[in-house]
TrEMBL record:
InterPro entries in alphabetical order: Glyas_Bleomycin-R_OHBP_Dase, PhnB-like
Gene3D superfamilies per UniProt: 2,3-Dihydroxybiphenyl 1,2-Dioxygenase, domain 1
Protein name: VOC family protein
Domain PhnB-like: 6-131
Listed PANTHER family: PROTEIN YJDN, PROTEIN YJDN-RELATED
Native source organism of the sequence: Actinocatenispora thailandica
Pfam family, one: 3-dmu-9_3-mt
Taxonomic superkingdom: Bacteria
Length: 140
């Protein structure tokens, strides 16, 4: 398995509707996880924590609703995501180190509730990046 680079879009509460629209327009398989799936019992429990559309053409689009406590900023609601399996962790960490150098780390690279290592930053040119290192279980 190889690493992927793809767009990651943030929405203001309508990520599920948008991703269902993109699935209908582009085809493919859509998976959706909510904040509630990760244990949130508050008002955001039904909001999308992560959605992923994989199309027959090879397109990969990811999205989420803007997390509680974070500002939704139209025009700045897209990031570039790099994700890959645990067996590519050294390369993924190297990308993370180089992309975050001279920029601003918004989420330090660390193990997350869903099991992966994840970090987010804004590079020195103002581009938002997310790097996700899958677990051994997801390497397969």
């Amino acid at each position: 398995m190889t690493s992927n680079l793809n767009p990651y879009v943030s929405f203001d509460g309508n990520a599920r509707e948008a991703m269902e629209f993109y699935r209908d327009a582009l085809g493919g398989e859509l998976t959706v996880s909510t904040f509630g799936d990760m244990g949130d019992t508050g008002p955001a429990a039904e909001k999308v924590m992560h959605a992923q559309l994989s199309t027959p053409a090879g397109f990969l689009l990811m999205a989420s609703d803007t997390p509680p406590g974070m500002e939704y900023r139209p025009g700045q609601n897209i990031s570039v995501s790099i994700s890959g399996p645990a067996d590519d962790a050294a390369n993924l960490r190297s990308y993370w180190e180089r992309l975050s150098a001279g920029g601003t780390v918004t989420v330090p690279m660390a193990k997350q509730p869903w099991g992966d290592e994840f970090g987010a930053c804004v590079d020195r040119f103002g581009i938002s990046w997310m790097v996700d290192i899958g677990t051994e279980d997801s390497a397969g």
